[in-house]
Each structure stands twice: as structure tokens, then as C-alpha cells.
Amino acid sequence: MNPTPIPFTPGSLLRLPNFPSRHVAPRHVDVWLPPSYDPATPLPVLYMHDGQNLFLHGYSYAGEPWSMEQAALRLLHAEKIPGVIIVGVWNDGDNRWAEYLPQKATQDPAWHAFAAAHPNLPPTQNLLADAYLRFLVQELKPYIDSHYATLPGRAHTLVMGSSMGGLISLYALTEYPQVFGGAGCVSTHWPAGEDVLLHYFAQHLPAPGEHRLYFDFGTETLDAAYEPLQNKMDALLRAAGYTDQNWLTRKFPGAAHSEPSWRERAHIPLAFLLGVQP
């Protein structure tokens, strides 16, 4: 595969167009390399969902990106990290919900009652989250590790997303705790499964000590509904033994469910997952 350079500063943005997969539909993958990137110096890798929303104006849902390069540069310029590679995996449009809804959680008998009360949910036989994670772990990660200077171990392999992307990030950590060392769950869309999802994750969280978990929420638009459910998740994390050494939940009053709001705070989950102060 020949990466396509995308005009971009700072750093380098490379596109892997229509990255092929045996598990899911092909999609673009964008790879951001920091200005300091040196093939002789391996770096941690952050895999992010909704890749079209991360770097470029005009592609994202609301036309404004997260500007994840600015979050990384903020830490770089403060000399808190040597660098990080950010891999933005584009979503598959109409299949986004099916790829991001934690699939095994829907096998809980309680899901049937929840789904009956929410008839717009996709049928469980059409869910693709398990296939999407196989794509990330079995196909995309090996490619990234073999073509770029990465630190391939668990401690340096991170995953992050917002809304439904927050759910699939946590699901990635529970499904592949040997691969991912941290998950950033921004404005996590708990209403997609409410207590069914909370119960599932309570049963499948990896043991604390070798993983880092970040959650946050705002108070406006869709985020206004998240606090009660996030409070339940926080209680489950405490019961599982997570402490402020390996878990952080932040509330951002006035923040909305939008890329501009996530851009304002993206350096915080990035720093936490990398084990430094923002």
C-alpha cells in the first residue's frame, strides 16, 4: 500500500486509502506523525475512531475537526512526551452504530427488553463491533507496527473515541486487554445501552494495575444526559479496584457534544493515557 501524503502542518499526515480488510468494509486510515518523528526513535500509538473528524476541516461531522495534532503538540512543546503517532480510522458511514455498539453486551437477556423499548436500534444480527476490533488488532495494528517506528507493546498502544467511539474504545480494552493499555472514552454515549452496557462492562473490566481508563462528559446537548450513567460507571470502577492512579473521570460544565468541545480538552485524555500531566 502506498500512503498518500496530505498537505498538512505541523507534522506529517499520511492517508492509507481504502485500507483493505477481511473483516469490515475498506475505509481510509489517516496517520499523523509529529514534527519530531524519527524512524530511529519508536513512539507510542493512539488509535482513534471517527478518523475523518480528527485533523482536517470539511470532513468532520460539523465541519470542524478535533485538531488532535494540537493536543499532541501541546504536550510535545511542554517536553512532557517525546512524541506520539495518532492513527485515525475513518468510520463506515451508515455502519458506524453497528461497528461501535459493544456486540457481546447485546447477548445479555436484559438487552431484549431494552431493545424493545428502543425500536430504532440496529438488529443484533447486523452488529459488526467484533469484526471491527479484529480489523484493528489483526490487520491495522500489524501494518502500523511494521511501517512506522512504534512501541508495539500494550503499555504504549492506546485507543480513544467520542460518543459511540467512547463505547467501542472501552470495548476494545475489555476484548483485547493484552493489546491495549489504555482507553479514552470521551462523552461516552451510555444511552446506547444504559444499564445493560454498564452491567456488561462491570463483568469484563480488566484488573486494575496494567490499564488506564479515562472518561468525561459535558453538560450541554447530548452530554446533558450522561452524568447519571457515568456516575454509575464510576461506582463500578471503584468497586473493581480502580483508583486515581489508573482512572480519571472529568466533568466539563458548559461543554457540548461536539468536535469543538472535544478539541478544547483533547490534551487531557491524551496526557492521561500517556501517563503524564496535561
Account of the protein in words:
- This protein is α/β, with parallel strands linked by helices and 278 residues long.
- The protein has a single domain (4-274), classed as Alpha/Beta hydrolase fold, catalytic domain (Rossmann fold, 3-Layer(aba) Sandwich), CATH 3.40.50.1820.
- The protein is 33% helix and 18% strand.
- The protein has 9 helices and 9 strands.
- It has helices at residues 68-77, 96-100, 110-117, 129-147, 164-175, 194-204, 227-239, 259-265, 267-274; strands at 4-6, 12-19, 27-33, 45-48, 85-89, 157-162, 182-186, 212-218, 247-252.
- It has a 9-stranded mixed sheet with strand order 1-2-3-5-4-6-7-8-9, sandwiched between helices.
- A hairpin with a 7-residue loop joins β2 (12-19) and β3 (27-33).
- The longest helix has 19 residues, at 129-147.
- The protein is globular.
- The model has no long low-confidence stretch (mean pLDDT 95).
Name a few traits of the molecule.
278 residues, Rossmann fold, nine-stranded mixed sheet
